[in-house]
Amino acid sequence: MAVPDTDTFSLQDVVDEFSKIDPQPDDLVDCFTNATASQFDPAYEGSKDRLSNFRNYNGIFPGQFNTIFGQNIPNSSSWSNQVLTLSNAYIGHDVKFVWQYVSGTSFTGDLQVGGNATLGTTTFDFDTYSGTPWQTSRNNESNYSSVSWFDIATGSAALRWNKRANSAPPSGGTGLSPPPYTGGDSTYYYAETSSIGNPNKNFWLRSPTVSITSGNQDVDYWRGNLGATIGLLYISVEVIT
Which of 12, 98, 115, 152 pairs as cysteine with 184 (C-beta 3.0–4.6 A)? Predict the structure, then answer.
């Protein structure tokens, strides 16, 4: 829960945010004492001396980078459809989706995002898409804020996400041939983990900005993860507006 993003919320709405604290705050001073600075909405936090500063506290606001998925990915011989659904708190916001892939211990860990992807209100057909480019990192950066971004390009360069079509990644023992499903697109993006792409290297992939509306809250994409040393994947949401 979050304090409502309205100008009509009450002190009780704020107190309820701290229901797990013992003893629970029961006045405004105690609420400020127990509050976490990063959870204040910058648009309203002010000097942190009045009730209105708690508007949208612990809510969704521009500048946030929220991880919604993190998992060691298993070796699999087939493409799989992956769907994550954002909470209603994201409705009305524009966001970018970010994949952070940490490679395994060898070159047999190429991860693929393929076919097409539906993110919020936008479906990206990778075979024909020509709008604002998806972007990739080209260096091993562990922090999102430190990444330098480059438009994704066709190729097979290590330590970056590449665009590829019609055949599996070139390294043996890793990667699947497209399409991910019968009649699907033959173009995909993949992390090339050969050479300097392992071990434990960070690959960042970022979508263009998309809108989240009621009923359009999904991250829906196809994932390929064939290889003996597939690594760790995180998916995060950068809130733009």
Answer: 115
